[in-house]
Amino acid sequence: xxxxxxxxxxxxxxxxxxxxxxxxxxxxxxxxxxxxxxxxxxxxxxxxxxxxxxxxxxxxxxxxxxxxxxxxxxxxxxxxxxxxxxxxxxxxxxxxxxxxxxxxxxxxxxxxxxxxxxxxxxxxxxxxxxxxxxxxxxxxxxxxxxxxxxxxxxxxxxxxxxxxxxxxxxxxxxxxxxxxxxxxxxxxxxxxxxxxxxxxxxxxxxxxxxxxxxxxxxxxxxxxxxxxxxxxxxxxxxxxxxxxxxxxxxxxxxxxxxxxxxxxxxxxxxxxxxxxxxxxxxxxxxxxxxxxxxxxxxxxxxxxxxxxxxxxxxxxxxxxxx
Length: 322
Hints:
This protein is mostly helical. Helix content is about 80%, strand content about 0%.
């Protein structure tokens, strides 16, 4: 790619027009840019594939020049011989899109840990909760600074959950000036961090943003069926309700883990979307229907927000493909 860049910097002074070399480079660069924009895989792998594709185009063009074609014609035919960059990107994506079983298991591990936390009743243990939280934060930070591998994004979703839940609880605290100020300061900062992380994840791949946010509608749906904000802060009614629903909560997170494994292991992008989209939506609507209208207005607003945040990346991906 550096060679292409250096060649692109050259200019001819003959009648102020670009030379055929520049046209060749422009055609090749345009093709490679379209190819890279469509190839939603790890950046290191994508750049390596683009480099190989660039070398192939140069070799093909050189071969056609030796057969008597002009450089511009050779470049044009070389680019056309590869076919549509979108089609080439799709074929290469399906080659690299399937993660290993190791990646699939490690991606699903946070869902399994949450299921185990509830199944073993360690959610009532401050030490157990602290260990899980510290582990999640550590792994999320490690993966973020290690190139954002695909297994990072489910961990990152759980990393964001406490940030959002804290903001919701702040809004339900007694309306004293201290808590109002805390909410006004905390919530803008939390929203900034949340949006920043989602944007950086979506820049890598829209579907990774949905993979990251998949636990959010499920957690909020259960969270809001257990009681109102004041009940969480002033009584233990929500704990009794939670005890009765633990088996279904465990099943919900095991279903999320299975969906995550399917997302990592499947090759076609449309199947990844289906495996990612259906389980959280089914869980969300089942839980809200089972709540029998116990969710308040603000609860529905939070649920709609979490559903919107989860589904938007998938919609953006479908829009790009259309």
